[in-house]
Amino acid sequence: MAGFTYRIDRFIGLDQSRDESLVSPSYSPDAMNMDTSDGGLMVTKGFSKYLPKAIPSAGAGEVNRILFYKNASGSIPVAVTDGGIFTYNGANETWNLAYEYEEARVSACVTAIMTRIGMTDTLLIADGRGRILKFDGSSFTAFGSAEGCSDIAVNFLAMFRSRLFSAGDAEHPDRLYYSKLPGGDRSIEDWGPDADSTAVEGGHIEIGAAGGDPITALAAMSNQLLIFKKNSIWRLIGDRPGNYTVELISRDSYPVYGLAAAVYRDVIYYVTKEGLCSFNGADASPLPDARMIKGVMASADTSGTRLAVVGDRLYFTVKVGLFTRLIEYDTALRRYMQYSGFFARDIVNDDGALIIADSTRYLEKWGVGDDFDGRAITAYWTTPYTDLGDKAAIKTLRALYLRGKSYANGRVVVETDVGFTNESTSILLPESVSEVAEVKLKNEGRVFRLKLANDLGGRFALTGGAELEMSVRKRAE
Length: 477
Fold this sequence. Notes:
- By secondary structure, this protein is mainly beta.
- The protein is built from one helix and 41 strands.
- The strands form nine sheets. Strands 1, 3, 4, 35, 38, 39 and 41 form a seven-stranded antiparallel sheet that branches. The chain has a five-stranded antiparallel sheet with strand order 2-34-40-36-37, with no helix packed on it. Strands 26, 27, 28, 29 and 30 form a five-stranded antiparallel sheet that branches.
- The chain is elongated and about 90 Å long.
């Protein structure tokens, strides 16, 4: 009988890209609500109220989008619901109905951009059901005019080379509109021709000729505009109508929905059924590590996916069953983690913080607090199922050694799975990370895995990895 130590040097993130027997112990095939950003393993921070008042529900319907109007004076939170648009008054801490729809926009996809019209900072909001709305910080008014060919119900907006580009016209699903180049008496609210110069005029372009392939999203880099369609991806390059060139990037692609694309360091990231993808200016494809969350994406619904960039991390939502999963991708560490236990209606970056529109109709700030605004966090980390490359050998688990700290009596639940026998033990970690906690174990089998979980929403943090001591023997011994 030989002794053996199974070592986890550090904790990194999810890896569902291959058979578990091939996965490094530093990765997990199934982990939830854990934070591994420093190489240790700790229960994630939760979220707490960003604003003290909930978005009103009476006659408003579901919350579709959270936006922030910004100018030199500050920021105004804006909530777009099925029934209308609310703005937040920080002075008296109230949400006020600022615009009421004539007809409810049930589960509408709402896109928006901050821009300038003349000398006014303006928030543009488009939902494909009616004309674009513009908000100047005090009131909402209709954008454009019939004379300017811009009173059209579009759904997707982007600013590219100082012009407003839009798409999502239900009557012309392949059409990409572009505004005049602003300057003089010209404005992005005018999409028509210009008698003085074709170089500054507005107009439109039909993108692709295939039927059943409508435009579903727009995203702008510094030197090109990416146009997502249901089954293809195109780009527009050029700086004026006379030299606009439209090129096909991908012919057979998965759909990208309106709020599932974002720009980070002049690279467009977007989410499809394949996972997190990118367009670097030449090629549109899944990230090399997109399969790390293959298991999550296999059952995920991306039709309502939201993508937000916060610092060097990308956050996106998918729906799995009846619940939301929040997926985090750390662009520096190249690792994925996932979070659940809440339903996110929308996510958005505000001044470097991830803001979540929770199903409770509160805006929540991610990474603050030890729970999900009063709801306990259930967190766990599972190691890969392994036979250590020796299927005939019987592994007898002896002890697990951990360093770390418990918070407010947060216990670590250690579960061992050796095929037909499971064992569960919970411990409090020592008060100092200079001590080592020893968890006695007794199960044996030919394959095994561990599960480290919290108990009743408690918090703990492990440092220095983990070591599992065992003895290994052949069946005849």
